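Quick one, probably user error.
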């Protein structure tokens, strides 16, 4: 007999068929749909440029789930310098790109369910093999998100996150 992959939501009391193991932001927080008309701006599923001045890549903050082989992930955006962004784009479809050194960046996604702002946390974006989003490593601080990345979270915390994301205040 397999375990029910769903969960009973602490917010609404309903049983949801699946416990999501990740959530993603579709764009950096500073993106505005009005930028779509700007020829120096672009947004794809993995890269973003705003007015030819600000550069972002999408990656994953991965958090181990204690007592399991599962990983919870936040799909986030980090800002990169112009030079690092150019290098990341140059290597985007190159086999062996995972040998690249990490790119320093600033977290550009606000994860509102944390008590402290997540915007502008220091990160390192680690390139992975072609077809995989970068691994986003947070600077080891006492920020709750950084602590979760380092120490892991429980399945109860995953359920708590799901309830908060499904039913924002």
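Nope, works fine. Designed sequence:
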């Amino acid at each position: 007999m397999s375990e029910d992959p769903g969960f009973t939501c602490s917010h609404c009391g309903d049983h949801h068929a699946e416990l999501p193991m990740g959530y993603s932001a579709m764009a950096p927080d500073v993106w505005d749909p009005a930028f779509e008309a700007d020829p120096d701006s672009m947004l794809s599923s993995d890269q973003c440029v705003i007015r030819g001045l600000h550069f972002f890549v999408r990656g994953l903050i991965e958090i181990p789930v204690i007592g399991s082989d599962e990983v919870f992930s936040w799909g986030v955006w980090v800002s990169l310098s112009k030079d690092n962004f150019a290098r990341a784009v140059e290597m985007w479809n190159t086999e062996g790109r995972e040998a690249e050194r990490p790119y320093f960046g600033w977290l550009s996604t606000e994860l509102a369910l944390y008590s402290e702002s997540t915007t502008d946390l220091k990160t390192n974006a680690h390139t992975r093999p072609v077809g995989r989003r970068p691994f986003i490593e947070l600077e080891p601080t006492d920020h709750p998100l950084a602590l979760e990345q380092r120490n892991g979270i429980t399945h109860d915390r995953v359920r708590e996150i799901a309830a908060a994301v499904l039913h924002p205040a």
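The two ends are 36 Å apart (CA to CA).
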